[in-house]
């Protein structure tokens, strides 16, 4: 299967599914030491980042999201996606936690998430396989693997709904570019690029959508962001695939105060969260 891409694929990913673990990473390392084995550690690519906070890395201006320190650059926008942790009787969210950072550039977006991983091995191979199975079996999509600048990637094509509400929210120029047959059938194929990097006791995932799938210039901007992310794993034992804690940067609160908003958070991950619309 070919998606007709110009070059090595670029695509976004979704949160890895939790899997039962027989032992956490600390127990696993201790068992290896008892057997006289030196525990192997997964690491980021030898050339460039993403970086671990304990390693030397380039000093750049970054937004501090807790476990993720994300570089800023002109033209970038940032949002935080939330999931509900408490709902009312009607299912409306009352409270929530940040679960992903969304980086926007022109007509492109990249969702970022970091997870705990075993000390001795990475989890990207398993996550890539699980993600492909979910897309093919549950979403009725297609996938293919390819090599990218950070190693193996997953490229997926999934059906995206084109409801009246979705179309109404689109800019007119974008609506005019959608083929009539897609509008008639109510859906259009959407290409998504999943990128993963195994680091020391962490896994970083990016899900790329939009023009950067084909537009080299827009992808290069997002690639530079991803390559210069610093992951802060922390020392607390965590089971593999558990989401590393995110926090809201102080710049978000300052931006909200400047706009006179009392609350800029939303707990619907499909709606806009706190954001800095552009970094100049």
Describe this protein with a few key phrases.
280 residues, alpha+beta, 8-stranded antiparallel sheet, 4-stranded mixed sheet
Write the layout of secondary structure elements.
Layout: H1 25-34, E1 51-52, E2 62-64, E3 68-71, E4 76-87, E5 93-105, E6 108-116, H2 124-137, E7 142-148, E8 151-161, H3 164-169, H4 172-176, H5 180-185, E9 187-199, E10 202-210, H6 216-227, E11 230-231, H7 250-259, E12 275-276
Parallel strand pairs: 1-11
Antiparallel strand pairs: 2-3, 3-11, 4-5, 4-12, 5-6, 6-10, 7-8, 8-9, 9-10
Describe the structure in your own words.
The chain has 7 helices and 12 strands. The chain is α+β, with helices and mostly antiparallel strands and 280 residues long. The protein has one domain. The chain has an 8-stranded antiparallel beta sheet with strand order 7-8-9-10-6-5-4-12, with helices on both faces. A 4-stranded mixed beta sheet has the order 1-11-3-2. The relative contact order is 0.26. The N terminus and C terminus are likely disordered.
């Amino acid at each position: 299967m070919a998606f007709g891409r110009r070059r090595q694929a670029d695509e976004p990913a979704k949160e890895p599914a939790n899997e039962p673990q027989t032992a956490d990473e600390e127990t696993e390392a201790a068992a290896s030491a008892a057997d006289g084995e030196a525990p192997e550690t997964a690491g980021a690519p030898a050339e460039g980042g993403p970086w671990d906070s304990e390693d030397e890395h380039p000093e750049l201006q970054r937004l501090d999201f807790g476990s993720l320190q994300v570089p800023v650059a002109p033209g970038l926008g940032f949002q935080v996606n939330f999931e509900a942790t408490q709902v009312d009787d009607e299912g409306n969210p009352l409270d929530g936690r940040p679960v992903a950072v969304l980086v926007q550039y022109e007509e492109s977006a990249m969702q970022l998430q970091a997870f705990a991983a075993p000390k001795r091995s990475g989890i990207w191979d398993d996550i890539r396989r699980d993600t492909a199975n979910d897309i093919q079996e549950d979403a009725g999509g297609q996938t293919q693997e390819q090599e990218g600048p950070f190693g193996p990637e997953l490229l997926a094509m999934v059906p995206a709904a084109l409801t009246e509400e979705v179309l109404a929210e689109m800019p007119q120029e974008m609506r005019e570019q959608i083929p009539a047959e897609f509008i008639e059938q109510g859906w259009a194929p959407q290409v998504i690029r999943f990128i993963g990097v195994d680091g020391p006791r962490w896994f970083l995932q990016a899900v790329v959508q939009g023009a950067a799938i084909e537009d080299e210039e827009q992808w290069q901007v997002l690639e530079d962001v991803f390559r210069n992310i610093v992951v802060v794993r922390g020392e607390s034992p965590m089971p593999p695939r558990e989401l590393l804690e995110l926090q809201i940067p102080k710049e978000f609160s300052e931006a909200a105060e400047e706009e006179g908003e009392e609350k800029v958070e939303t707990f619907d991950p499909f709606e806009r969260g706190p954001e800095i619309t552009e970094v100049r």
